[in-house]
């Protein structure tokens, strides 16, 4: 978060105060929005949530204390820092404001330097809190995968191996194939986990160059052909050319994960299509399947590290939810975007957009 991306809502019924505050903070590069009443403030917040609110205490109809009280009662807005603007310096009023959840006070008439310092401090503090929250979510996801997904994987391998070494009448070749498949799943999980961990700790840096997208796609189709054959899936690519400027290893990982997911969630005799088209200065790469689709309420969970969301494939293939998070991080690290469109029961289309080679 920086000044250019930080949005500050100023709530004051006095036009002169709005002008003074607006001029002072605009010079510092902050994005501003304004409200002249508590009711108008809530309408503004519903349209776009600000990073900080400067809130006048003495307003008609709904004073600043009541606005703050209602904000803190709403889980969606409770974490927005509020700085009160007031001419009141009575100890009781100051304490009341802090008890309601305000983070600071600025007294009238405003001192520009003091105002700027307090605003900047709380914007930075909010950014730090968000980074800590993200770090905790990353840690929790990491240990969840180790404890749950790798644990289940090894339990399965141990169980299959016990059948093989025990005195059981089993189809040993079938069990060997199951062990091989589970081992490959574990290897893929570990690769994603290690790469994601390196990216989070800053040890994995993008090294962009001009890439031959067709070669990357064709190589991954070949790599995953055995998975597709087991379901009798038709995979084809219409990509003939298209050079993008990105890190080869990262984009290869993204294509592999998206294609693997498409195979995983497409039932027997289905189809997966890979295509590309130019969108301005970017190239959009699309992976479309005829799979089970995604529930609309689950789509927004797919790329969030702090939301646990995993789904088994059509052949009961396990998932961790880590692959798409890794894809998002890799694509954004290379200056691109990722998105998804889906219809339940009809299939999904995942797409990434990357800068093209000049």
UniProtKB/TrEMBL annotation:
Keyword Transferase: yes
Superkingdom of origin organism: Bacteria
Coiled coil: none
Name this protein carries in UniProt: histidine kinase
Domain Response regulatory: 7-123
Residues annotated as domain Histidine kinase: 145-358
Catalytic activity: ATP + protein L-histidine = ADP + protein N-phospho-L-histidine
A GO molecular function held by the record: ATP binding
Gene Ontology CC: plasma membrane
E.C. designation(s): 2.7.13.3
Pfam families cross-referenced by the UniProt entry: HATPase_c, HisKA, Response_reg
Keyword annotations of the record: ATP-binding, Kinase, Nucleotide-binding, Phosphoprotein, Transferase, Two-component regulatory system
Residues found modified as 4-aspartylphosphate: 56
Protein source organism: Candidatus Thiomargarita nelsonii
Top-level class of the enzyme under EC nomenclature: transferase
């Amino acid at each position: 978060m920086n000044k250019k991306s930080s949005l500050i809502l100023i709530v004051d019924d006095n036009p002169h105060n709005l002008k003074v505050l607006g001029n002072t903070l605009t010079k510092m590069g902050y994005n501003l929005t304004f409200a002249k009443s508590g009711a108008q403030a809530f309408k503004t917040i519903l349209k776009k949530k600000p990073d900080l609110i400067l809130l006048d205490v003495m307003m008609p109809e709904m004073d600043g204390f009541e606005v703050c009280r209602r904000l803190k009662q709403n889980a969606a807005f409770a974490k927005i820092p509020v700085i009160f603007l007031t001419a009141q310096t009575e100890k009781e009023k100051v304490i009341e404001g802090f008890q309601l959840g305000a983070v600071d006070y600025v007294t009238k008439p405003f001192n520009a330097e003091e105002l700027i310092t307090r605003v900047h401090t709380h914007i930075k503090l909010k950014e730090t809190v968000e980074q800590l929250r993200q770090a905790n979510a990353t840690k929790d996801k990491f240990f969840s995968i180790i404890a749950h997904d790798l644990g289940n994987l090894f339990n399965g391998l141990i169980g299959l191996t016990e059948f093989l070494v025990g005195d059981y009448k089993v189809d040993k070749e079938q069990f060997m194939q199951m062990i091989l498949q589970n081992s490959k799943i574990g290897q893929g999980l570990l690769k994603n986990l290690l790469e994601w961990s390196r990216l989070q700790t800053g040890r994995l840096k993008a090294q962009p160059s001009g890439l031959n997208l067709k070669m990357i796609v064709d190589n991954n189709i070949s790599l995953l052909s055995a998975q597709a054959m087991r379901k009798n899936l038709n995979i084809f690519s219409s990509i003939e050319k298209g050079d993008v400027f990105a890190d080869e290893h990262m984009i290869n990982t993204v294509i592999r994960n998206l294609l693997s997911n498409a195979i995983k969630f497409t039932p027997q005799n289905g189809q997966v299509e890979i295509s590309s088209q130019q969108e301005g200065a970017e190239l959009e790469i699309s992976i479309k399947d005829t799979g089970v689709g995604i529930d609309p309420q689950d789509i927004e969970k797919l790329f969030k590290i702090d939301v646990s969301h995993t789904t088994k494939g059509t052949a009961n293939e396990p998932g961790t939810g880590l692959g798409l998070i890794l894809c998002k991080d890799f694509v954004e690290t290379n200056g691109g975007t990722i998105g998804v469109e889906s219809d339940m029961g009809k299939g999904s289309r995942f797409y990434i957009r990357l800068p093209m080679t000049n």
